[in-house]
Structure formats: C-alpha cells, structure tokens
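User: quick one, sequence for these tokens?
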C-alpha cells in the first residue's frame, strides 16, 4: 500500500469516527426516542411470559423453564429494530437540512457519509442488546451457551441493524425524505411478528407457517435461540452470523451504489 492510499484510509477512518460520534450524541440527546425501544419489548416479554405459561407445555415446544428463556432473542431483535432505520433517517435529515451538501463540499470522502451513521446505529444497538440481556438475566433467564452465546446474540442483532440501516440509507438517498425512511419501520416490525420470534414454526400451520419459515428473521432467531436453550454449537453460530452478514453486505453495497450514482449525477 502506497503512502497516498494509507493517508486516504486514515482520513476516512477519522471522518467515520467523527460522524459516528455525532450520530451517538444525537441519539443521546433524544433519549425519549430510544427508551420506548427498550421498555416496549420488556413489557411485551412480561405479558407473553404470563400469558403463555401453559404454551411451553405443548408437545413440540422447545424445552424451557420459562417462556422468558424462549422470548429473549425476540425481545432483543425487537428492541434494536426500533432504532434500526435511524441510520437512514439521519441521512435523510442531513439531506433535507443541507448538512449533506456541506459535507460534499468539504474534503470528506464518500464512504464515511454512510459508515458514520451506520456505526452510530451499531453503538446504540449494542448498548441496547447488553442492557436487554442483563435485565433478562436478572429475572432468571439462563443462557446455556454461556457468555460467548450472549456475544453472538448481540453481534447478530447488530448485524441485523446494519442490514436494515443500509436499506434505510438506500431509501434516504433515493427520496431524501425522513418520512419515506420511517415508513419502512412497520414493515420491519411486522416481519418480526411473522417469524419464529414469539412461537416455534413447527407449531404453526397454513400460510403463516410458510411465511415464517421463509422469513430471514426466523433464520437468525432460530440458531440464536438454540444457543440460549441448548448450548454452544458452531453450526448455529455460523448461521446466526452469516445470514445477517450477507444481508448487510447486500444492503450496504446497494447504499454505496446509490450514493455514487447520486453524487455522479449532481
């Protein structure tokens, strides 16, 4: 690597860190928007744990001491999904208020324009994930795979946030509208409910089961849940991380292509 390329990478890293810091500070100043993403999944987990006390006795239901053990991955994914589109929303806001154009006029390179917001969303999602797991452990949840499984759980959730955030950034670049990006949130939320997040697919029937089994959220939650309920498995770790990683690579690449086209056409 020549000196010019090394300097360019170092500059891009510094710019990404600066925009990440700005994104995290923005979230910190808007805690009112972050807290519901923590409280709502916890309340839902409490209600479901009480309502589904007898459901865990159904033949075919995974062996658990409490529904709380079963619902941990769903609550975590639900929690991080609340802020998953924030990377796109922030980018759209920057386009609307002209900050994006000021960055373009500055020596800022292209990639940090996207990575800064995504890294900010990752920091917030990781903090949420650690907090959610800590609260579940306080209420008696046991993770059979140990601390390493908890790390995989948080990492999978963070990768999912990158995947959704990348898609949000594509919409932000194409539309320049916060409303258009925020409109994707109901779709994200619905996709969680139409998966194995709150009930095993083998106990579903009809078209709902087919949709749930084809839902990528199910492909992420099922192996993570096995790590929690059954113990460590390298194959489950691979699936839990590979699925969101591939989706993230696709959506972030789409965002980079959309950004390059926008900058080339203007």
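Assistant:
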């Amino acid at each position: 690597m020549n000196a010019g390329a090394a300097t360019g990478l170092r500059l891009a890293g510094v710019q990404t860190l600066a925009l990440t810091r700005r994104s995290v500070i923005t979230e910190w100043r808007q805690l009112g928007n972050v807290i519901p993403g923590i409280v709502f999944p916890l309340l839902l987990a409490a209600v479901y744990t009480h309502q589904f006390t007898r459901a865990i006795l159904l033949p075919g239901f995974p062996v658990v001491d409490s529904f709380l053990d079963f619902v941990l991955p769903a609550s975590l994914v639900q929690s991080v999904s609340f802020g998953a589109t924030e990377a796109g929303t922030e980018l759209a806001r920057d386009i609307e208020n002209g900050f994006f154009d000021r960055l373009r006029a500055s020596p800022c390179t292209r990639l940090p324009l996207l990575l800064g917001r995504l890294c900010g969303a990752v920091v917030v999602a990781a903090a949420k994930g650690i907090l959610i797991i800590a609260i579940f452990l306080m209420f008696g949840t046991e993770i059979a795979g140990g601390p390493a499984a908890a790390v995989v759980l948080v990492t999978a959730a963070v990768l999912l946030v990158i995947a959704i955030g990348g898609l949000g950034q594509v919409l932000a670049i194409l539309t320049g509208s916060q409303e258009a990006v925020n409109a994707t949130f109901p779709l994200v939320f619905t996709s969680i409910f139409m998966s194995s997040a709150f009930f095993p697919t083998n106990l579903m029937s009809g078209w709902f089961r087919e949709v749930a089994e084809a839902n990528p959220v199910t492909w992420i939650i099922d192996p993570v849940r096995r790590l929690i309920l059954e113990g460590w498995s390298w194959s489950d770790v691979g699936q839990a991380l590979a699925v969101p990683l591939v989706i993230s690579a696709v959506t972030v690449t789409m965002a980079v292509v959309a950004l390059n086209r926008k900058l080339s056409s203007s």
